[in-house]
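Review box. Two proteins, two foldings.
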Amino acid sequence: MMEAGRWSSVYTYDHFVPPWTRTADVAESDLHPTMEGWSLLAGMAAVTSRLELGVLVSGNTYRNPALMAKMAATIDEISGGRVILGIGAGWNIREHQAYGWEFPSMKERQDRLEEA
């Protein structure tokens, strides 16, 4: 349906806990299901033929850069070269808390992003 219109791209987001929730409680996210962004993108790649596809920004603090590159390359292959990759330093502290991930200082997050 979207490909029949004027859309040229479609994006999802890369969050495990909806950013609009007020707590780091993963159970609260069940009230507003959040699909994993890269898996969703793979599904979109399989059923579209011209739309560019992307995840708005993936947090470098919870995505291993080498694995992320492999994921993006795989979906890019499935889609015929239509993936747009965006990475960032990570910002959602509640999301990190919910999964027990370290939330480094801004400097360390920026350093990790530059290294990635």
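Next protein.
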Amino acid sequence: MTAPPVSRSQPGSPQLLDHSRQTRRRSVFSRIVTVFTVLNALGVAALLLLISVVSEEWWLTAVLTYLPRAPWVLPSLLLLVVSLFANRTMAWVNGVAAVLVLGPVMGLSAPVGAVATPTDESKVLRIATCNVQGGIGHLAKVLHELDLLEIDLLVAQEAVRDISELEEHYADWHTLHIGEFWFGSRYPIRHLQTFRSEGFNRDTAVVVEVEGPDGPFRVVNVHQSTARHGLMNLSWHSPFTDEGVKDFEWYQWQREVEALDTASFAMDQAVVAPTLVLGDFNMPTTSSMFVKSWSRLTSAFEAAGFGYGYTSPCNTGTRWPKNTPWLRIDHILYDDRWNVHECQIGRTDGSDHRLVMAAVTLKPQADVGDE
């Protein structure tokens, strides 16, 4: 007599055992995804806290401040895809983590309610700044962009070596060249003062007076020291051996002195007349050093620009895609007597820094008094 067939639901059947194994594997995989999701979410939250609050107050987070931030989104995106199949509840967590990285961690700017451009275009000043890298790049690319933007005033940093192409291009403008600082304007300009900071004992700013269409105003051309030279003192094992840490901390202290000195000089100009501060600050606006020094002025890009607005570095060799900067360290700042209507970042790699352009107008005196 033959044995009765084994039911699929009967304990010990091959089908039931196989189904049980698959269920256990899915459960284990789901738990693994959950663990990695939680760890990643905590890591993103910690990263945001470190770069936005601690920032350059601690040497290790100062390093994070100047490293590329886009790679930090990869774990969140990978976990998001995996969690859609393994644990959909965790997909929401990974989605939020990705948004945090793509937003505040990477410095996304999305201003609301920018001031509309006035109907009288003659009142609008289109101003720009660019570190021209001593003219050793492809300056023609930068000049072509500037022509398309129809600017009225340009300030340049590192205007050394061969900048004849720049000077010839603006030969019919009012120009001024002091050290590494260069000014070009459709309107008359007059040199007022060159500022030398105690930090590193170097010239960090030049201020001029411009006879604009609505009266005189001041423009401060700024170039502060880069963090890069201090970072070069560090190595991969510095967190364990402290190699180069003291040198880097000393360098950072000098940078902070320089930033505070230069910002104080710029604010002195704002006491006298409407003031615009443009240049290569060599620090993002999220830097604690920037906040300490420059927070009394407003960033044009954060007021009227959209996107990340990265300006440097454009030429990075083989370890990073060319013309793909990851830092916004070139800025246009303004005091409360100005309206900013738009702010754009250049696109070319004619220099190691992209240009920054803003369209601004002076506020009516009554509007300034009401604020």
